Amino acid sequence: MRMTFETGPQTGEPAGGRAPGTPSDGVTPEPTTTRPPDPGAALSLRGLWKRFGQKVAVRDLDLDVPVGSFYGLVGPNGAGKTTTLSMATGLLRPDFGTVQVRGTDLWAHPEQAKATLGILPDGVRLFDRLTGLQLVTYAGLLRGMDRDTVAERAKSLLAAMDLTADANTYVVDYSAGMTKKIALASAMIHAPRTLVLDEPFEAVDPVSAANIRDILADYVTSGGTVIVSSHVMDLVQRMCDHVAIVGAGQVLAAGTVDEVRGDQTLEDRFVDLVGGRTRAEGLEWLHSS
What we know:
α3 (132-142) crosses α4 (147-160) and α3 runs parallel beside α5. The chain has a six-stranded mixed beta sheet with strand order 6-7-8-3-9-10, with helices on both faces. A four-stranded antiparallel beta sheet has the order 2-1-4-5. It folds into two domains: 34-116 and 192-270, Rossmann fold, CATH 3.40.50.300; 124-191, no CATH class. The protein has helices at 81-88, 110-114, 132-142, 147-160, 176-188, 206-221, 233-239, 257-261, 266-274; strands at residues 43-52, 55-65, 70-74, 96-101, 104-105, 117-120, 194-198, 225-230, 242-247, 250-256. It is an alpha/beta fold. The chain is globular and about 60 Å long. Its main location: membrane.
């Protein structure tokens, strides 16, 4: 597939603009024959494209996430992970391509599709002048849940996240780990079938990270699906059963962790695919004499 760019300033299309499947001005992907979306997948992406100015962030990306999997999306900085997940969850409109959530077209039926998703975006911005309890309660009420159910679930989630003692503390006063946990609780309040988490362990202390991993593992065991982006290979290798390696806006390899890494570690396989490893030269002065 080729893309043709017109000259002149371009900007990313804001959410709520033109329908996906219609290229943005100056972007003309040629039609291709691709596999149809998998209606049985938790998430099925086909032919996704996204450009910001002259930079193509995602190009012709296909991905299927099996129901009940713990799926890792890994790639170097700037690989297109966040852009892909933003398009996959309705936060950003693709220039071209389709997204299906358990067989439902995300852009044709957004309310139905998004009702099954719990989302933790990268660099999440919260209403941090609310207490932790108020924030989780607000998230449940926004989903149209009744107050009694919200109150019961919020109490359970705060206990699971070890935040009961801080339920009435303002979120602005939370640590980075506490903030991630309260954001995750807000994403889970409506019992989504799929959680999409962008860098959930970034800036999180080891104890909080371990607690979050346990919660997510229990969620998958009970039938949920988790999609998590990360650039920490060891974490993904230990935590996930499926993985996709993304580079330059494309999927370079995807499958079970064992299939993708082969007889290598996941980190070595990752480096082989994305490249970029260099050997430092001219730093002999750093060596001990």
